Amino acid sequence: MKPLSYQQKSYASVIMAVAVLLVLATLFAKLNLVQQYQYAYTELSHQVQFIRDQVYKVKVSDNHSYDKITQSLVNVERQVQQLQQRLQPLHASKIGSSIIIDENMREHAKQYSSTVKELIANLETLLRLKISQEYSVHTVSLLQQDLLNSYTDADSKMHIFALAAGNPQINTSENPLFNTSQYQSLAVHIELLAKLDEQIKLKSQQVFNANVSDSIAEQARFWLVLVDDIKFYLLLMSICLLGIYAINYRIQLREQARKESKILHDLSKIEQEKAQLSLVAEHAQDAIIITDSSGCITWVNKGFVTLSGYKPEEIRGKKPGKILQGKNTSKQEVDRIRQGINRQESIKSELINYHKDGSEYWIDIAINPIINPKGQVTHFIAVERDSTARKRMESQLAQAVIKADVSNKAKSTFLATMSHELRTPLNGILGMAQIIEPNLENPEHRQQIQILLESGNHLTSLLNDILDFSKVEEGKLCLENELFQLKTVIEPIISTYEPICAEKDISFEVKNSINEAQSFKGDKARVRQIIYNLLSNSVKFTESGRVTLSFKQAVNEAGTSGVAMCIQDSGIGIRQERLDSIFDPFIQAESSTTRQYGGTGLGLSIVKQLVELMGGVITVSSKVGLGTRFDIFIALERAQMPVNTSSETSKVKQALPENIRILIAEDNKVNALVAKTFCQRLGHNVEIAYNGLEAINILKTKPFDLVIMDNHMPEMDGIEATEYIRKTLNLSVPVFACTADVFKEAHDNMINAGANHVLTKPLQEQSFRDALAQFAHLIGKEQQLKANDNKVVALSRHQPQELNTTEADIDYRQLRAALADAETFSQHIAEFNEFAEGSITELIAAYDDDNAADICQLASMIRDKAEVFFSARIYTLALEITDTLAGAESVFESQLKLERLQQLINLLEVNIHQNQRLKQGQSIEHKNDDVSNVS
Fold it and tell me: Which helix or strand (DSSP H or E) is residue 319 part of?
């Protein structure tokens, strides 16, 4: 059994003491009450005995004694009744004595009350009898005297005295005395007196009976015994209370001894801990400094002496900062530490201290205030750790990072240069091969040219893989975020791989369970690249059977929606132990694969990294001889294709422009010849400029329908030349940039400079034809407008695909610099679009109403808005219209040409469209930043 705890023992002793005290209180109350009853009953007993004696001595002649005795009897009887009633339960509960008055007391009180009542009743009866006796004696005496006075003869007197003596004579003679009423009355009273005497004797015996005295004495003894018993119990309870107190005192002594033992043990433990802490503080490598509340040193450990070179006696009483800090110590950190100390806060810092010999060293310092219970700072404890080695390592790491960045930039520059240098001659090789191929009639020669084209295309693919891998590895690959429909990805894949599979005599099947009308937002080109790379492997490694490509909508474990794709083939398969490394760069399933099928082993590595960049996952399963399956999930946001872009996504293929004038700016004569030959074979007139400056000078003197602009040229490169064409010459002629650079930054730089499209070297004839078809609506438009100035008969809006977006000239860089933040910038762009839309509507309405004043006012407002948005073209044209219509009453009668108003509307529309593209995610700021980085 588990021993009782100190608290349990204390509670038990207290409860016992309280119980004993309650018993003592009850006993004292009972003793007091019993003594009161004892005194009351004893007094009553004396009164009863006194009254009894008085009744015995009472005389009728003494009326005062009779009344006093009567009153005393009444009082005694009332007191007896009151005492008995007070002991009854009903009355006892009222006075709170029901606990201390027991049934035995009530029984004795009842008996005593009965005895006293009976005694009082007998005394009253005795008193009445004695009164009657005295009255009878007095009557007898009066009657006797009256008879003696009436009858004086001796015989009559003898008879009277005999009757009075209680011995009446027998009537032997006829004495008239016997017949008198007085005599008969005397006889009756004498007889009554005799009876009274007998009754008095009987009552006296009852009153003075020993049993009555014994009963009264017994009652007195009961109360005396009860008092003695209560006193005994009081003594016993007092002894118990003393015993409890003694036990509790012993418990307290034991607890106190235990606490003292624990305190001693704790003190001993604290002393041990202090000794250990003192040992730690004394021998710790970190410097520990203790100062008083004013910051003066009171104690330092050996670590401080080792770190600073100062001995304790040299610095005691001095402030650490004045001794340890120097010219290279950060003033800002010192001020911050001082402010923290003044605020009584803990503070951490890193700063330079100086050794006694003057050498610098870095420390990490933590200062903590010691605050007493009154809230006053008594000491400060500072812990300093030498961080010189860490700071040196950080510096070395920073230098290493800089070197690595320089190395990465050098690698990127090298790759870009090598790509450009390799693509430039490759462009000549493939270009000339494409030119020669149609002219060959000999099948053997045609087969040789085909081998040359395939080898060139393979080399181009290798260059693309290496560049993509480099960009992904450096984290510089940026994903586009454009709206597209999955059919625009699937259709080119089908058109590419159906003939390839048919040539290998394998089946190619595409299963698409996604609604064709469903649009997605993401990087369409990279999605297509992932599928192309995987399909390329599947087709390459499948000699018979089939290749299957399937699409369906899915949701990943995180709840993100996207597209699940599966590419499955019946090819050679991959061994299980090689699956884990299949996505590593420069790794192929088998070493013999490279010899038999070729390849760098970068394709799957690029695919995996592209999938992960898109928030997706790719898995592979395979069995040797049965085939391989790739499952891909790509997170693509579902979106709704805007209504106004439906014509763009489903535009009808336009016919190629015919007999147009093309200016080719290309410094490499072979590439220039290739481009010229492509153009001439399509029936176009071509002129060549061998640098950007030469192209500018030609454009100043001759009109052209299309400019093909190389990037890297002497004297003036393609970007500068394109910007000059747009901003200085203000020409809207379509410009196709043609560059061997495949980095996105280079393409974005050309687009930002004003190019409509970018062609990548080596130039492919089909890609050139596609570009001509795509921009057929813009090629030759400027000359057509100039030749048909008078053919515009009404103002109108245009579809987005009809707009030449290169005419958009809001300078986003200047606008962004003038505004506070990106949110304000977006608000201004939205405000411009709203203003421009309203202005176009009002211009058309004002022209239809021939309201020159409204058009002049609108043009003035547009001019002011263009100035705020740094749009030079809109500003110039709006200013021209304002000046032309100033003071005019009619538009039709003024010198203003309708074409100028239409051009203003066109400029507003192209800027609205460009702003919408910016809002959809084609961030001009990102592109400008890329331009700056490349520059």
Answer: none
User: How many beta carbons lie within 10 A of that of residue 391, not counting itself?
Assistant: 16
Q: State the Cα angle at 182 between 181 and 184, rounded to 5°.
A: 65
Whether the CB-CB separation of 81 and 113 falls below 8 Å is answered with yes
Number of helical (H) and strand (E) elements in the chain, helices listed first: 30, 18
* Strand ranges, E, within 38-95: none
Q: What are phi and psi of 391, to 5 degrees?
A: -65, -40
C-alpha 155: how far from chain center: 142
Q: Are 750 and 722 in contact (CB under 8 A)?
A: yes
Q: At 565, which helix (H) or strand (E)?
A: strand 561-569
The single-letter DSSP state of residue 732 is -
How far out from the chain centre does Cα 207 lie? 102
Q: How many CA atoms lie within 13 A of 561 on its CB side?
A: 8
Strands (E), 735-838: 735-739, 757-760
As beta bridge partners, residue 706 has: 662
Instruction: Decide if pLDDT at 204 tops 80.
Output: no
Read off the pLDDT band of 60 (50, 70, 90).
low
Cα separations (Å) of 287 from 335, 338, 353, 515?
Answer: 21, 19, 12, 72
Q: What is the pLDDT of residues 490-536, one digit of tens each?
A: 888 888 788 889 888 999 999 999 988 888 988 888 888 889 888 88
Residue 555 three-state SS: strand
- Summarize the confidence of residues 718-747 as an average pLDDT: 86
Q: Which pLDDT band holds residue 735 (cuts at 50, 70, 90)?
A: very high
**Across 10-14, 47-51, 79-83, 796-800, which has the greatest mean pLDDT?**
10-14
Q: Is 760 helix (H, G, I), strand (E, B) or coil?
A: strand
Q: What are the two backbone dihedrals, phi and then psi, of residue 466, each rounded to the nearest 5 degrees?
A: -65, -40
Residue that wins the pLDDT comparison between 367 and 115: 367
Q: For residue 188, give both structure tokens.
A: 């009756």
Q: 565-599 pLDDT, tens per residue?
A: 999 999 888 888 777 778 776 454 444 444 344 44
pLDDT of amino acid 927: 38
Specify the pLDDT at position 590: 47
Tokens (6 digits) for 731 = 């020409």
Within 10 A of 331 (CB to CB), how many other CB atoms are there?
A: 9
Residues contacting 69, CB < 8 A, separation 6+: 51, 54, 55, 58, 127
Q: In whole angstroms, what is the distance from residue 202 CA to residue 198 CA?
A: 6
Q: How far is CA 878 from CA 281, 808, 882, 903, 923, in A?
A: 81, 15, 6, 10, 28
The CA distance from 612 to 583, in Å, is 12
Residues in Cβ contact with 99 at an 8 Å cutoff, skipping those fewer than 6 apart: 26
In the numeric block, the tokens 């009782």 are attached to: 4
